[in-house]
């Protein structure tokens, strides 16, 4: 049916129904969309062909009337209660009788915790099977990072706790802080971009991913697949300090280390300066002591060498003397005087030693040499 | 020569130097060179601890491509 105005002179006037019908047709040309909101004013009656509800934007309070065929609604078996968040797929529709704008839904999906938990569990298994959470993948944290990357939301508490504790433990630290969107739409992309920017910084040796506690939904971006993968493959080790002790977003499993609080994260990424100084000073003392020991040892060795050097000539002399004494003894043994001393005598005739009786004749004069003194004698007879 | 090394590397090298000297099998000339190296490493480590307060820099990532 065509929407026709009534003419009053040259003024075109539409009846209310014609106007509504025209708007309704216009709306009918709009594409089907998904709309997210909280369920309020849910009315289902077995006698009605349609289920009525109102979706509300929790932040602004804006509301939208939604209708869905009761048969379709019942088939979904959602068991919706007021206050749950849903996605409704449908087209804009005008209730022509009342001129009320609404959404004619073709389907509804719950986006509350339940659906997320199932999806998270599935993602966790998938990533675990890929080995993203394997202990051997986990990198060791540097003991003293040149700079610490801090990825945080506009969350004064978590950021403050982290930075204050880092400064208290290790004042010489350097922090590169990247503040980014950490919840709501676009948060996963923002977190990934921030993580990459921090890891690309030439001095950043470790990144702390932190945000304070929040609702399950608030922490969901830290379980987003892109974020978990970015944490697992980050160029530097990542410490995950997201939410409170009881929260375990998936990025915790992919991170090199998990900290229950921002304060605990600080203790993981910087050493305690006093302890570090103490260990350095101990090293310093050992350095001095070891070199002193070495020098002392060498000095003692040198002293012993010196003693030996100085003792050497005397030793040589003694050795020579002993050798001389020995030679003298041998010489002494060969001397005829020693033989004479044992009672032998040397007999000479005309200066020659007499070796055989036949070399002399009776009456010859002999000289007899004894150990002490000598004799002159004459040969009485010869017995050759 | 120590500029590009991390604190950790410097500290590790210092410990290695001390351990070598403590083993005592180093000739005296080498020991003195090692000792000087150890001193330099110790000073380099301590210098890195000198800053009195945390330096904080803000970093804004490039917007991700839409």
Brief sketch in words of this structure:
With 384 residues, chain A is an alpha/beta fold. Chain A is built from eleven helices and 16 strands.
Describe this structure as you would to a colleague.
The complex is a heterodimer of chains A (384) and B (66). Helix content of chain A is 41%, strand content 25%. With 384 residues, chain A is an alpha/beta fold. Chain A has 3 domains: 6-111, OB fold (Dihydrolipoamide Acetyltransferase, E2P) (Beta Barrel), CATH 2.40.50; 116-274, Succinyl-CoA synthetase domains (Rossmann fold); 325-384, no CATH class. In chain A, the strands form 4 sheets. A 5-stranded mixed β-barrel of chain A has the order 3-4-5-7-6. A 5-stranded parallel sheet of chain A has the order 9-8-10-11-12, with helices on both faces. In chain A, strands 14-13-15-16 form a 4-stranded antiparallel sheet, with no helix packed on it. In chain A, a hairpin with a 2-residue loop joins strand 1 (6-8) and strand 2. The radius of gyration of chain A is 58 Å and the shape is rod-shaped. Chain B is mainly alpha-helical and 66 residues long. Chain B contains 2 helices and 1 strand. In chain B, helix 1 (7-23) runs antiparallel to helix 2 (28-48). The radius of gyration of chain B is 19 Å and the shape is elongated. The N and C termini of chain B lie far apart (44 Å). Chains A and B meet through helix 4, strand 9, helix 5 and helix 10 of A and helix 1, helix 2 and strand 1 of B. Strand 9 (174-179) of chain A pairs parallel with strand 1 of chain B, so a sheet runs across the interface.
């Amino acid at each position: 049916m065509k929407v026709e105005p009534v003419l009053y002179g040259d003024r075109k006037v539409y009846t209310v129904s014609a106007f509504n019908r025209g708007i309704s047709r216009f709306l009918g040309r709009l594409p089907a969309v998904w709309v997210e909101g909280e369920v309020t004013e849910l009315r289902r009656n077995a006698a009605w062909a349609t289920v009525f509800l109102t979706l509300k934007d929790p932040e602004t309070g804006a509301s939208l009337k939604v209708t869905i065929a009761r048969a379709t609604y019942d088939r979904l078996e959602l068991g919706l209660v007021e206050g749950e968040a849903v996605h409704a797929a449908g087209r804009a529709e005008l209730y022509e009788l009342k001129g009320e704008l609404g959404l004619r839904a073709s389907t509804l999906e719950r986006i509350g915790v339940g659906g997320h938990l199932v999806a998270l569990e599935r993602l966790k298994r998938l990533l675990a099977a890929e080995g993203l959470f394997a202990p051997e993948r986990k990198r060791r944290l540097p003991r003293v990072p040149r700079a610490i990357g801090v990825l945080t939301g506009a969350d004064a508490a978590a950021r403050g706790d982290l930075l204050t504790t880092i400064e208290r433990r290790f004042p010489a630290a350097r922090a590169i802080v990247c503040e980014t969107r950490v919840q709501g739409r676009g948060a996963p992309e923002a977190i990934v971009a921030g993580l990459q920017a921090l890891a690309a910084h030439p001095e950043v040796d470790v990144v702390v991913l932190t945000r304070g506690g929040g609702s399950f939904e608030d922490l969901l971006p830290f379980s987003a697949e892109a974020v978990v993968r970015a944490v697992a493959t980050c160029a530097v080790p990542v410490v995950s300090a997201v939410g409170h002790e009881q929260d375990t977003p998936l990025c915790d499993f992919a991170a090199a280390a998990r900290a229950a609080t921002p304060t605990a994260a600080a203790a993981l990424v910087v050493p305690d300066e006093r302890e570090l100084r103490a260990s350095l000073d101990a090293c310093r003392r050992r350095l001095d002591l070891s070199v002193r020991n070495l020098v002392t040892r060498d000095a003692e060795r040198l002293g012993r060498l010196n003693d030996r050097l100085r003792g050497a000539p005397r030793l040589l002399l003694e050795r020579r003397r002993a050798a001389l004494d020995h030679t003298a003894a041998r010489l002494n043994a060969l001397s005829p005087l020693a033989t004479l001393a044992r009672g032998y005598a040397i007999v000479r005739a005309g200066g020659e030693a007499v070796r055989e009786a036949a070399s002399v004749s009776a009456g010859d004069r002999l000289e007899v040499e004894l150990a002490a003194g000598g004799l002159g004698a004459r040969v009485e007879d010869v017995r050759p | 020569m120590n500029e590009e090394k991390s604190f950790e590397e410097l500290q590790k090298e210092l410990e290695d130097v001390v351990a070598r000297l403590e083993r005592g099998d180093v000739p005296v000339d080498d020991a003195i060179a090692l000792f000087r190296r150890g001193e330099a490493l110790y000073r380099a480590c301590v210098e890195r601890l000198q800053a009195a307060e945390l330096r904080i820099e803000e970093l804004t990532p490039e917007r991700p491509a839409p």
